[in-house]
Amino acid sequence: MLEIKTFTFNPFQENTYVLYDETKEAVIVDPGCYEKEEKEMLHNFILSKGLKVVKLLNTHCHIDHVLGNAFVKRKYSVDLHVHPDDEVVLKSVESYASNYGFQQFEPTAIDEYLKEGEDVRFGNTNLQVIWVPGHAPGHVVFYHKESGNCIGGDTLFEGSIGRTDLPGGDHDTLLNAIRTQMFTLPDETVVYPGHGPETTIGQEKIHNPFVGERARF
């Protein structure tokens, strides 16, 4: 059974996720840990559960979601998996990280590309990779059909959507991707976003002011 642990890290209040199952294999999604205390919090949880981290996944590569990439790669000797369309986004972080006060940011390289429609496998778990561009060109979400959970990054939030005014963003593209990709998931699907609390597909179909039924009026 898939288990999901949420951490909220860095000044952007970004949600970092650890996904694991009964085999104790785990993946880390969007590690936002930057400060020493944040890294220790993440590592102590992994130790307490006896987990073996086998993959590092990024939904997308804006700075707040990749601050801990280098730490995780080094600490657990794992590969970084990113959609190819977000490689330029990842490479750009080094050029502006200091402007946000992250003087010690460590750049990382992509080891494997994520492909839409393919699964990310660990333990007894398969995560479906779904491409949802618009917030970032290579943004993906990870959907676990059996448990009805979706790690949504910065696509869909409770009552909101990801911003589209950053380089590579496009408002209409994001709206279309949410409607055609995420809104085809079952209504009871729980979305774990990159910031803020969880929501469900069904709730956002009705109430979201950007893409829900009320957005049409």
Automatic annotation (TrEMBL):
Keywords: Hydrolase, Metal-binding, Zinc. Pfam families: Lactamase_B (PF00753). Residues 13-195 form the Metallo-beta-lactamase domain. The keyword GTP-binding does not apply. The keyword Metal-binding applies. Its cofactor is Zn(2+). GO terms for molecular function: hydrolase activity; metal ion binding. It comes from the Bacteria. This is MBL fold metallo-hydrolase. The lineage of its organism: Bacteria, Pseudomonadati, Bacteroidota, Cytophagia, Cytophagales.
